[in-house]
Amino acid sequence: MDLNTGFLKNDFYSSNWDVVVIGAGAAGLMTSLELPSKLKILLLNRNTSKRSSSRWAQGGMAAVTRVEDSEDIHALDTIKAGAGLCDPEAVQMFVESAPRLVDRLLKLGMEFDRTSGKLSTTLEAAHTHRRVLHVKDRTGKALVDVLNEQVDRRDNVLHQRGIRVTQIWVEGGRCLGVQVLDGPALRWINAKAVVLATGGGGHLFANTTNPIQAAGEGIALAWRAGAVIEDLEFFQFHPTALKLNGAPSFLISEALRGEGAVLVDSLGESPVAQLEGKDLASRDQVSRALFKAMQKQKVDHVGLDVKSIGVENVEARFPSIFQRCRELGLDPLKEVIPVAPSAHYWMGGVYTNLKAQTNITGLFAIGEVACTGLHGANRLASNSLMECLVFANQMRDIELNNFQTSDLSVKNSSFKKVNLRFSKKQGTQYLIKEIEKLRQLCWREAGVDRSQRGMSAALAKVKRDYENLLNEPLLNLVFSQSKNAINQFDEIARRDLNLLLDLTNRQMASALMLEACLFREESRGGHFRDDFPNSVPFWQCHTRQVKGMHIHTRPVSDMFFEFKNR
């Protein structure tokens, strides 16, 4: 039977699923394709549309496809960008798998740009060779469209949109399923395994290139379930997001700089001239250089000059960026594009091994929500989309014979109507304002430039605000719901609950991030503190956070990386 057309709602809830995949960006979609076809897979997407951070990715995917390049060089570039915190075995698996995954994508129907019949590649920051494959400046969208089409063809995958995961079900150290809010109904779904593919947390910050759903929800879900969280202090701030009054932040791909565009400050000089790689130095270095220049000159942006690329190349290679600028009244061929650093990518996340397995049996994490050891303290440009594919590919040999499920009977379920309300008089508006205040706080105290004083005060406030919400009856109902219960919310209760979950998940993820930032008393990669501005050998280690334990460290793997062509 075709699950996508033949399953009724009751069948969907009464079924014993082999795997529940949470999130339908590149990581979730590719995981659904790579899991063995004999497994029954439920793909849950909180969005009713096809929005995901993956679709917003402009630059491309890094893989060695040119004869003058090599996997060893790609590995060295990745390790150098990672500022001493990359785990070598993760890097080795990644660079060796990436070319094979390019072939896999081509077979699935991905149409990369080509020049004279050969795959086109571009140069991006901190790469020593042109190895970034692309589809104009819409690579993420092209990838997600191809994967969506393939998932829709699979008889063993049921893709359900508009369903929010509210808890991960764990008993005795084993993951048994998830709790979901499906429209007005709060209920449980059982499964032998669960895969987190919820994306990152850029929207924790006021300035970000990420969509609104990238707010650290997967981190909060995993931490509450008892999963190990690593390296949350390392957040990548992309140097060049559009900065225009009244316009939403929009990523201006660094592939433009790879093709010859240059950064200029308000005096018409280069703000990155002192960096070894200048305009193509690593993202953390460029972002800090721009931040300092903006502070010194008391402006809120610098300029990106693309005129040297030429009109034909800009329009052909970067149509989305060119069109977006024109819509906002900018002509990039006549004036500089105003840009500023913006929260872009979370290097930290849920700790996994090379098989994407967390410390909880049956719980996996793939994509930006995961911390695999690949990126270290700073991600190399265009390694992220490919990471989704490489680690999803690791799921192809998953064996679930020893994994347990728990029986949930729809017939024996108890139904309860819920008309509770959020206790504050302002209700919805209060929660929306609190979310925005939290975003401003995180940007101000945990953005590009950090210090002990600001972060300590911010952490205390976030914890206090979070604890004040824990006794809300709506939240208590979620966290105390029995496995056979089905709670049916009226419209106002459902709206309040969704916003409460949004706020408390953001508070939890923000608090964990701030705690990690305060713990690491140095500057490294995507973590810069003006009170500890230098890297310290003592801190060449990963930070770890686990529910019920004090924050601690894990050593970087000391595996010797065997380069084949030194």
Automatic annotation (TrEMBL):
Catalytically driven reaction(s): L-aspartate + O2 = iminosuccinate + H2O2
Tree of life domain: Bacteria
Keyword Lipid biosynthesis on entry: no
InterPro entries: FAD-dep_OxRdtase_2_FAD-bd (IPR003953), FAD/NAD-bd_sf (IPR036188), Fum_R/Succ_DH_flav-like_C_sf (IPR037099), Fum_Rdtase/Succ_DH_flav-like_C (IPR015939), NadB (IPR005288), Succ_DH/fumarate_Rdtase_cat_sf (IPR027477)
Enzyme class: oxidoreductase
Localization, UniProt: Cytoplasm
Cofactor(s) this protein cannot do without: FAD
Pathway(s) where this gene product acts: Cofactor biosynthesis; NAD(+) biosynthesis; iminoaspartate from L-aspartate (oxidase route): step 1/1
GO cellular component: cytoplasm
Annotated ranges, domain Fumarate reductase/succinate dehydrogenase flavoprotein-like C-terminal: 436-559
GO BP terms: 'de novo' NAD+ biosynthetic process from L-aspartate
Documented EC number(s): 1.4.3.16
Sequence ranges assigned to domain FAD-dependent oxidoreductase 2 FAD-binding in this UniProt record: 18-385
Keywords: FAD, Flavoprotein, Oxidoreductase, Pyridine nucleotide biosynthesis
GO MF: L-aspartate oxidase activity; steroid dehydrogenase activity, acting on the CH-CH group of donors
PANTHER family: L-ASPARTATE OXIDASE, L-ASPARTATE OXIDASE, CHLOROPLASTIC
Role of this protein: Catalyzes the oxidation of L-aspartate to iminoaspartate.
Family of the protein in this entry: Belongs to the FAD-dependent oxidoreductase 2 family. NadB subfamily.
Name the UniProt record assigns to this protein: L-aspartate oxidase
Gene source species: Prochlorococcus marinus XMU1408
Biological classification of the source: Bacteria, Bacillati, Cyanobacteriota, Cyanophyceae, Synechococcales
